[in-house]
């Protein structure tokens, strides 16, 4: 049976920090709008900030649905599930906010991700989520699967981009500045990566 938690700590925190992948779900307020579900990986790109707050790094991609939905209404669900060991599923329902490169909080937040070189993945935002409901369920139906390693493809694709070329890449995509449903997405032009967060600087 599922159980509710007051905070993200102890065994619960240990579990979610040990997972190599998690999933995010968001949606616009419009009932006919597009629900978005995304897998998030890359070891070191997720952090528990405190007992009710988590954050993850939002890297370059071909759309920005999560950012657009959070800018409109803030609703988000994060989900982790066990692919090895005891079966378990954990969901954090809460309110999220995209923190962009030109936000005064950027450098401090990046301190929670010491193992990530932000220049290698076209980092465009840090998603900060405040938990409103924390629950786990059994996960009996989740199969056993093994983790081998992170794919190197994302870094090899975006590590060669400068701030300027990354901005040009985003401008060429249909659903970066605007979501599939026409909501404001990633603000452009893309601000330069702050020097303190730039391993090349």
Protein described:
There is one protein chain. The chain has 201 residues and is of the alpha+beta class. The protein has one domain (3-172): Electron Transport, Fmn-binding Protein, Chain A (Pnp Oxidase, Chain A), CATH 2.30.110. Helix content is 19%, strand content 28%. It is built from five helices and eight strands; from the N terminus they run βαββββαββαβαα. Strands 1, 2, 3, 4, 5, 6, 7 and 8 form an eight-stranded antiparallel beta sheet that branches. A hairpin with a 2-residue loop joins strand 4 (46-50) and strand 5. The radius of gyration is 17 Å and the shape is globular. The termini are far apart. The model has no long low-confidence stretch (mean pLDDT 95). Residues 10-138 form the Pyridoxamine 5'-phosphate oxidase N-terminal domain. This is Pyridoxamine 5'-phosphate oxidase N-terminal domain-containing protein.
Write the layout of secondary structure elements.
Elements: E1 3-5, H1 10-18, E2 22-26, E3 36-40, E4 46-50, E5 53-58, H2 65-72, E6 75-81, E7 89-100, H3 106-110, E8 125-137, H4 153-158, H5 163-172
Antiparallel strand pairs: 1-8, 2-3, 2-6, 4-5, 5-8, 6-7, 7-8
Order of helices and strands: EHEEEEHEEHEHH
Main β sheet profile: 8 strands, antiparallel
Which descriptor suits the 3D outline?
globular
Instruction: Please identify the top-level CATH class.
Output: Mainly Beta
DSSP E strands, number = 8
Can you tell me the number of structural domains? 1
């Amino acid at each position: 049976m599922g159980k509710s938690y007051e905070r993200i700590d102890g065994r619960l925190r240990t579990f979610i920090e040990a997972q190599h992948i998690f999933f995010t779900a968001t949606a616009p307020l419009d009932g006919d709008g597009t629900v978005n579900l995304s897998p998030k990986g890359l070891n070191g790109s997720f952090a528990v900030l405190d007992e009710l707050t988590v954050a993850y790094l939002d890297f370059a991609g071909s759309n920005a649905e999560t950012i657009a939905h959070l800018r409109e209404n803030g609703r988000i669900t994060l989900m982790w599930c066990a692919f090895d060991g005891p079966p378990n599923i954990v969901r954090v329902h809460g309110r999220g906010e995209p923190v962009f490169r030109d936000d005064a909080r950027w450098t401090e937040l990046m301190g929670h991700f010491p193992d990530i070189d932000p220049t290698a993945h076209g980092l465009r935002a840090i998603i900060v989520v405040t938990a409103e409901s924390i629950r786990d369920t059994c996960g009996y139906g989740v199969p056993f699967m093994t983790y081998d390693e992170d794919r190197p493809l994302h870094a090899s694709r975006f590590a060669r981009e400068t701030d300027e070329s990354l901005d040009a890449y985003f401008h060429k995509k249909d659903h970066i500045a605007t979501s599939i449903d026409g909501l404001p997405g990633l603000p452009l032009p893309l601000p330069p990566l702050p020097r303190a967060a730039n391993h090349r600087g």
